[in-house]
């Protein structure tokens, strides 16, 4: 058993409550308590944290980072690079995301994900398979030649992956996946998400009943909210059992639309933050390749040559700042959108998303401008700015 440590912060947000002049006590990778600094025993190693200690960010849609795009490098090394790149911005758990690709690349990604879990890669929570079982009509930047219906081999591969990983999210469209297939995935504990689809409100309700739990990047690549046809946007906001990911870069969704969605969302489901980040995060890259196509990085946007958005150029700390500073959300709610609500959506909220006894010792130390100063995963500092 390792010696207990105490990470001291001016303020600690535990996911619900603020604690002043306190410390997070941790041992063997787990949180044991939050204690006033004045009550710490002499046998506890004290570590100065910073202005704010908060639950580590959890990102459920991360295509790449550190110069690596998962589709181009579906390896353990690629996964480790992506996780390390996002740790610099306070992300302590993430789902590296494979967008629509061949069965071979998907299989290689699944094998790499299982090996990454077995190796204990810091920050690796599981995988997000975004496609290829989508709608060509709402393909976005996904290669339409690779989009196809889900077959038995695909279902078996996903089920084997879900059984081996702590968390697995799969984005599907009703145009390519049946309610029966969704029910099979949901019964296996896999988080099924609707995205890249023309699905109507009624179809979305049917798939929610079959086991869909989330909606992928709300507003983007889906049937819009209309006054006579609510579409998937309306379903995401109206169906209480659905959670929804939101890309809060101010480009994918207008701030006014974000604010309206947050006011409208029916619970208990929540809107949580995702970055949808690509390989340039943490680098000075100006372009990269996806499925043989060049993606350009300009003015905070990532686009194909025709202007189609292709992922986002934002990190999680910046996303939290935007919803706090631009939308005016209380800081604690902005932090929950990047941690607790994500943990709930990914079905890992019994161990992540809070600073509480028994939870994983994953947290981010922030300054007053909500910039990451250090990041801790399993009680170990993996980044210090």
Q: How would you describe this protein?
A:
- This protein is α/β, with parallel strands linked by helices and 385 residues long.
- It has ten helices and 21 strands.
- It has helices spanning 76-87, 103-119, 152-164, 179-187, 201-210, 231-238, 255-264, 316-326, 331-337, 340-345; strands spanning 5-13, 18-27, 30-36, 45-55, 57-62, 64-65, 68-69, 91-99, 126-130, 167-172, 191-194, 214-215, 243-247, 271-274, 287-290, 293-298, 301-303, 309-312, 363-366, 372-377, 380-384.
- The strands form four sheets. The protein has an eight-stranded parallel β-sheet. Strands 3-2-1-4-19-20-21 form a seven-stranded mixed β-sheet.
- Helix 2 runs parallel beside helix 3, helix 5 packs across helix 6 and helix 8 runs antiparallel to helix 9.
- The longest helix has 17 residues, at 103-119.
- The radius of gyration is 20 Å and the shape is globular.
- The mean pLDDT is 96.
Distance between the termini: 29 Å
Helix content: 25-40%
Q: Which structural class do the helices and strands define?
A: alpha/beta
Q: Work out the helix count.
A: 10
User: Rounded to an integer, what's the Rg over CA atoms?
Assistant: 20 Å
Largest sheet, described in full? Answer: 8 strands, parallel
Low-confidence parts lasting 5 or more residues at pLDDT below 50?
none
Using the alpha-carbon principal axes, give the shape.
Answer: globular
User: How would you write the strand order of the largest sheet?
Assistant: 5-8-9-10-11-12-13-14
Mean pLDDT, as a whole number? Answer: 96
**How many distinct beta strands?**
21
β-sheet strand percentage: 25-35%
